[in-house]
Amino acid sequence: MKFFGASMSAKRIRAVLLLLGLASIGVGISTPSLWIAILNGYPGDSLFTLDPAEIAGVVLISLTLITSFFWLLSLVLLPLARAVAARPVTRAATAIVSLAGAFLVFGMSHTVSPQIYYTFYRWIIPGLPDQWVIKTWFDTERFIGAATLAPDGSLSAHLTGIAIWCLAVFVAWIFMMRWQDGAWQASPLVAGIVSAAMLFVMRLAVS
After folding, report:
1. Does the CA dihedral 7-106-196-154 come out positive or negative?
2. CA-CA distance, 198 to 205, in Å (whole number)?
3. Residue 133: closest CA among 143, 119, 146
4. Which residues contact residue 42 at a Cβ distance below 8 angstroms, ignoring those fewer than 6 apart?
5. Count of domains in the chain?
6. Partner residues linked to 3 by β-bridges
7. What is the pLDDT at residue 205?
8. CA–CA distance from 180 to each of 15, 79, 155, 176 (Å)?
9. Tally of CB atoms within 10 A around 56
10. Structural domain for 88, as ranges
11. Residues in CB range of 170: below 8 A, 6 or more apart
């Protein structure tokens, strides 16, 4: 498959998914608040008032939304990274602008996502009114709250926070690699492990 002239091989697809997984692990290891929430079982989280099948549906929606965002982001950034690969200064500037744009788009997506969840809840809970639950197109307070990964946060907020932190390493990694066909600066596994380690240090530095 080609997108804006860049070939998307199965190897690159696996590399993108591998990095996302390793970066998520890096966030989890470096965030004690996540350990606390997991050990406590997220007490009071409304998610756990649902039955197992309904919980699975909510989790599936969350994972689908987050994975789809990173997948679409890679489709846009891979050809862009390839185009500026030979110009280090331009590549660095493009990476910074791309990261800012990724945060903006993800923040907007995060703000409107409650409507998707509410639609699902209306399907499984009879009697809920048909209404628009989105109050703004970018909820800065909710976005920052998710990024802090507070111990009392919900499972949904923690999934969002992990995704936010993964964005930084994800974008940096794409622009650090050489995406020409068959020309890699490092193996995807090594790059992913290094990225996870970098993310671990970043999280500790701001904790």
Report:
1. negative
2. 11
3. 119
4. 48, 154, 155
5. 1
6. 6
7. 54
8. 14, 9, 39, 12
9. 11
10. 2-206
11. 19, 20, 23, 70, 73
* 154/161 Cα distance (integer angstroms): 10
Distance (Å, whole) CA 126 – CA 129: 9
Q: pTM here? A: 0.74
pLDDT tens, 78-133? 888 878 877 878 888 888 899 899 999 999 988 888 899 999 999 998 888 988 88
Mean pLDDT in residue range 151-164: 82
Residue-level pLDDT at 65: 86
What CA–CA distance (Å, rounded) separates 92 from 84? 9
Query: From residue 160, how far is each of 27, 62, 100, 182 by CA, in Å?
Result: 12, 9, 17, 34
- Whether the predicted pLDDT of 177 surpasses 70: no
The answer to whether 202 and 168 are in contact (CB under 8 A) is: yes
CA 159 to chain centre: 8
